[in-house]
């Protein structure tokens, strides 16, 4: 066989035979004794089971690395799905939403009484622990399309069949462990024995698959608070069951059968209903609400949510005014810097908080105020030329990443405020064992929006995303539990609409770019979707904030 060059991170190149398995050129543990769970090979995250067929550079991954941690978590999901399929072969198993580093999961157990649920969760956990003890191999095989369909049909894995129904490749890559098979979606660990750290914690109608964080790979932390978010998500799960679209395969079938327009209208009506209920809660609050604060992570749809909520408040007899927190930046001279010395625009002290609080209180007192605006070219705050006065029955609506932070509006009495948290909590899954994360939905939204309106490439969006998420972890997520209401801005059809644009953008990122890892992963996610025309998206939809042609002014 031909010889190829293998360069392991920090070492000199070595020559090996073409076809050598990746695991044969890497140690099983790193210098700190942590298991190697996978590797970055020519800027792609790969399983240790792959054969090396060309010259490569390799960086081993452990659970302390971001990409290695994703491999570990995906592998735990695979282990759980295998155990659930073998224990409960006729019941649907689903990986749902994130809970801290872990994931909320459900199995369609007919008896959800507390004692029965605890017993089933204990059985599932014991089965997973036994598989870890046996140290079973996790491998890959390439089979014909027909063979894959037959395997999943015989195993009653309808979620896999639904995905394959809308594809026609000559061969399908399967992930294998014993007799269990899955469609390969991501890299997994090579053996179940690596997955020693996990727990199953009964929760609501299911359980949380708890795993360590990348910062503490040897420790399982208590589950974080977030019951208000979970209630919203659980409601969305029930809604998905009612309309019969809970997986990507079912969405693809809806598109094929030309039923997507009705599905889209139903989802948008649900958004309107939720906003109407939030507006009613604001109107009915006593003492009266004077300030509505809306926060959420990047591309969650905060701006459109604020504008649509204003419409519902008007229906309730209010006269809302919208204030942007961006107008209260302090400017570069006063802006805080991060530990690297770069300007940190997401720091709360990047805003002129005294001036903001003063303007809010004066407005609420009925005064005419020359509000702040910000000149982004000169990086300077200015007074507006005109005065603003809060009209009778007026409510101030303000959105921004810090809106739930008590420091943001510290001078405004708590009883006068109503706090709303916005995020994309989709109930749609690729299949039972593979979820669609809120972060993936948001980054695809942002990538398309940046291209459409900011002349920014997908490369630049992905390059900046780490700093964006770092700011969210510091300034948004710690305050989400302060919210009086949660608005789920997820649209279960949106990735089908965004796919044609996002795929073209992701294809511009090449293998020599560091961002290629994420580009390939997101391309793999979008590959599961059939495309849907943007013509079905209503003019006031949150998605129009991303793709354009909105009826709302921004």
Description:
Helices cover 36% and strands 19% of the residues. The N and C termini lie far apart (61 Å). Strand 11 and strand 12 form a beta hairpin. It has a five-stranded mixed sheet. A five-stranded parallel sheet has the order 16-19-15-20-23. A four-stranded antiparallel sheet has the order 8-9-14-13, with helices on one face. Helix 3 packs antiparallel against helix 4, helix 4 (158-164) packs across helix 6 and helix 7 crosses helix 8. The chain has 14 helices and 23 strands. It has 554 residues and is of the alpha+beta class. The longest helix is centred in the middle third of the chain and has 25 residues, at 260-284. The radius of gyration is 25 Å and the shape is globular.
Quick rundown:
36% of the residues lie in helices and 19% in strands. By secondary structure, it is of the alpha+beta class. The strands form 7 sheets. The chain has a 5-stranded mixed beta sheet with strand order 2-1-7-4-5.
Proportion of β residues?
15-25%
Give the low-pLDDT segments: none
- SSE class: alpha+beta
Outline type: globular
Biggest sheet features = 5 strands, mixed
* Cross-sheet strand order for the largest sheet: 2-1-7-4-5
Beta-strand segment tally: 23
Average pLDDT score: 93
N- and C-termini, Cα separation: 61 Å
Alpha plus pi helix count: 14
Oligomer: single chain
Radius of gyration: 25 Å
């Amino acid at each position: 066989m031909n010889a190829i060059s293998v360069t392991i991170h920090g070492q000199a190149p070595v020559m090996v035979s073409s076809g050598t398995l990746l695991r044969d050129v890497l140690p099983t543990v790193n210098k700190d004794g942590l298991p190697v769970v996978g590797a970055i090979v020519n800027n792609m995250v790969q399983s240790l089971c792959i054969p090396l067929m060309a010259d490569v550079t390799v960086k081993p991954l452990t659970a302390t690395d971001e990409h290695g941690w994703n491999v570990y978590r995906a592998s735990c999901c695979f282990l759980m799905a295998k155990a659930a399929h073998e224990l409960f072969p006729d019941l649907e198993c689903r990986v749902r939403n994130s809970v801290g580093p872990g994931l909320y999961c459900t199995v369609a157990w007919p008896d959800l009484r507390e004692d029965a649920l605890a017993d089933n969760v204990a059985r599932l956990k014991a089965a997973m622990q036994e598989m870890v003890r046996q140290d079973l191999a996790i491998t890959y095989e390439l089979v014909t399309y027909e063979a894959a369909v037959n395997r999943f049909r015989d195993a009653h894995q309808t979620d896999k069949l639904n995905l394959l129904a809308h594809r026609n490749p000559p061969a399908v890559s399967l992930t294998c462990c014993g007799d269990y098979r899955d469609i390969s979606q991501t890299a997994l660990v090579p053996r179940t024995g690596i997955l020693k750290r996990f727990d199953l914690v009964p929760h609501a109608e299911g359980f949380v698959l708890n795993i360590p964080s990348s910062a503490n790979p040897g420790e399982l932390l208590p589950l974080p608070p977030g019951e208000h978010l979970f209630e919203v998500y659980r409601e969305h799960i029930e809604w998905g069951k009612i309309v019969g679209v809970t997986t990507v395969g079912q969405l693809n079938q809806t598109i094929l059968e030309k039923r997507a327009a009705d599905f889209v209208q139903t989802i948008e009506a649900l958004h309107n209903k939720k906003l109407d209920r939030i507006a009613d809660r604001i109107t009915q609050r006593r003492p009266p609400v004077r300030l509505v604060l809306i926060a959420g992570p990047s591309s969650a749809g905060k701006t459109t949510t604020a504008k649509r909520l204003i419409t519902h408040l008007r229906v309730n007899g209010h006269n809302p005014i919208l204030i942007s927190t961006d107008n209260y930046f302090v400017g570069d001279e006063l802006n805080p810097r991060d530990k690297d010395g770069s300007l940190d625009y997401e720091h709360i002290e990047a805003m002129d908080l005294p001036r903001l609080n003063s303007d809010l209180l004066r407005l609420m007192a009925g005064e005419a105020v020359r509000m702040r605006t910000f000149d982004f070219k000169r990086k300077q705050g200015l007074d507006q030329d005109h005065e603003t006065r809060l009209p009778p029955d007026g409510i101030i609506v303000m959105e921004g990443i810090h809106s739930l932070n008590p420091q943001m509006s510290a001078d405004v009495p708590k009883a006068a405020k109503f706090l709303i948290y916005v995020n994309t909590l989709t109930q749609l899954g690729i299949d039972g064992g593979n979820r669609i994360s809120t972060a993936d939905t948001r980054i695809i939204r942002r990538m398309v929006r940046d291209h459409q309106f900011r002349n920014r490439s997908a490369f630049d969006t992905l390059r900046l995303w780490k700093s964006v998420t770092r700011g969210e972890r510091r300034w948004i997520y710690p305050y989400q539990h302060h919210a009086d209401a949660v608005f789920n801005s997820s649209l279960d059809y949106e990735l089908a609409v965004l796919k044609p644009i996002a795929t073209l953008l992701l294809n511009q990122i090449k293998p020599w770019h560091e961002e290629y890892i994420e580009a390939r992963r997101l391309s793999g996610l979008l590959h599961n979707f059939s495309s849907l025309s943007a013509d079905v998206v209503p003019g006031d939809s949150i998605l129009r904030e991303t793709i354009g042609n909105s009826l709302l002014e921004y």
